[in-house]
Amino acid sequence: MFHRFLVFSTIVVSFGFSACLFQPNISELDSNELSEINEEFPIDGFGYASDRGILVRGQVRANQSLYVLLSEMGISQQVIREVTKELKQSVGFRFLKQNQTYYRYRHHNTGQSISYAPILIIMESNVRYIKIDLTDGILVQASAKPIEIRFRQVEGIIESSLYESLISQGHSAGVGMELSELFAWQVDFFRLYRGDKYRAIYEEFISEGEVVGVGRVLAAEFVHQNRPYKAFYYEDGLQQGYYDADGNGIQKALLKAPFMYNHRISSSFNYNRFHPVLKQRIPHTGTDYAAPLGTPVIAVGDGEIIESRYRGVNGNIVQIQHNGMYKTAYLHLNGFGPGIKKGVQVKQGQVIGYVGRTGRVTGVHLHYTLYKNNVPVNSVTVDLPSQESLAASARGAFYLEVKKYSYLLGQGGLVLVTNTDLNDVGKNS
Ligand SMILES: [Zn+2]
Predict the structure, then answer these.
(1) Ligand 1 centroid to residue 267 C-alpha, Å
(2) Residue 318 has pLDDT above 80, yes or no
(3) Are both 237 and 371 inside the same structural domain?
(4) Which among 144, 171, 201 is the end of a domain?
(5) N or C: which end of the chain has fewer CB within 10 A?
(6) How deeply is 2 buried, as exposed, middle or buried, from its count of CB atoms within 10 A (0-12, 13-18, 19+)?
(7) How far is the CA of 358 from the centre of ligand 1 (A)?
(8) Which pLDDT score, from 0 to 100, does residue 161 have?
(9) Ligand 1 midpoint to CA 145 (Å)
């Protein structure tokens, strides 16, 4: 059962067709077919081969500028200025709008952090887009090309890793990235248990018959250590996000750890630690993570950089004030992320520095401290507040979605979708 999946629909969502085209194209693929496709690097709807990375879709958040988007991709300030000028001159583009769709190419999982190919696609309508390609100089181009989105279901039991479970069934590693981001508050994806279970319905991007990327997870269930966690995507004009079956937000304001992928705790938060360098009992009011020199360190939440400098035993230190209650500190950094300076606003997941061995240390590691009301707290065990729950006015529509997806998730490998369902599912362009 777990080795089967059905592609249960193929529809054109984002590009050019106001009405959904429902094709009852239920065909069965096997993992061999898909791995062959991957090796051939198919060209996607934007003209790029899949070796550029995994095509990921984003939506412009409030106050998210082109500058922020490009900075996240590691593009320098100077280049961003030139791009902005070029955009204005050659295609008349000035500002990103809130909720505007964009695509980027996330590099295949290197085991350490998120990084992107220097390519940004900004959708201007369902068909028209602007391509910014900084691979070799500055290319700015207005273009149009359809991409299809289809919905797939996957389910599995963790034997060795989520990644292997997905790949062995012919699904993209990108699904795992989406799931680990979406359940980042409930499940420690670095400590999954054998026997943990998952199922999900997600979007897959198709161009000219080839799988070119992974979109959003629409509904998912993850059973970790026998505790089930559910997530349902919901959006309307007022809010969007992932909620549990009761409409409570499942994503919290801060990530559990300042790394995107693998990390290992080398020394826990402990008020009675015997300090290896000073040979005396000194409270260890933070968590040490062992990671290779240069591993990117990410902001655990949105906030303002309140310190970014070399400071004595701390070495290179970055501190972020997230809100009135929470502050985080990152010590012994090898260096700082692009544009990281005191007073700068950062977004969750943004690279703020790199693991190093500056200051008083015995070896390469990151010392990370979460402060609650300026008191260090154990970031690993602390219970963080939830994202906002759904507004009462959205509950009715949301519960219908929950009912529909719960039913679909419960169908195992076989999912049937009616025309009505597709209209609902496909409203996210
Ligand atoms: Zn430490």
Answers:
(1) 7
(2) yes
(3) no
(4) 144
(5) N
(6) middle
(7) 12
(8) 87
(9) 51
pLDDT digits (tens, 9 = 90+) for 324-339: 778 999 999 999 999 9
CA–centroid distance, residue 318 to ligand 1 (Å): 14
Could you tell me if 274 and 355 lie in one domain?
yes
Distance 317 CA to ligand 1 centre (A): 12
Q: How far out from the chain centre does Cα 150 lie?
A: 20
The CATH number for 57's domain is 3.10.450.350
Q: What is the pLDDT of residue 322?
A: 85
Q: What's the gap in Å between 347 CA and the centre of ligand 1? A: 24
Q: What percent of the chain has pLDDT over 70?
A: 79
What percent of the chain is predicted at pLDDT more than 90?
Answer: 37
Looking at residue 401, what is its pLDDT? Answer: 93
332 Cα to the center of ligand 1, angstroms? 9
Q: What is the pLDDT of residue 126?
A: 65
Distance 292 CA to ligand 1 centre (A): 16
Query: How much distance in Å is there from the Cα of 151 to the middle of ligand 1?
Result: 45
Mean pLDDT of 239-268: 84
Distance (angstroms) between ligand 1 centre and the Cα of 71 equals 29
- Residue 383 · residue 360 · CB < 8 Å: no
Averaged over 347-364, what is the pLDDT? 93
Range(s) of the domain holding residue 109: 50-144
| pTM over the 0.70 mark | no
Give the per-residue pLDDT at 98.
Answer: 83
Confidence at residue 208, expressed as pLDDT on a 0 to 100 scale? 67
**How many angstroms is it from 297 CA to the middle of ligand 1?**
15
CA of 361 to the centre of ligand 1 (A): 8
Burial class for 127, CB neighbours closer than 10 Å (0-12, 13-18, 19+): middle
pLDDT at position 107: 79
Residue 74 Cα to ligand 1 middle (Å): 28
Whether residue 368 is found in the same domain as residue 278 = yes
How much distance in Å is there from the Cα of 300 to the middle of ligand 1? 17
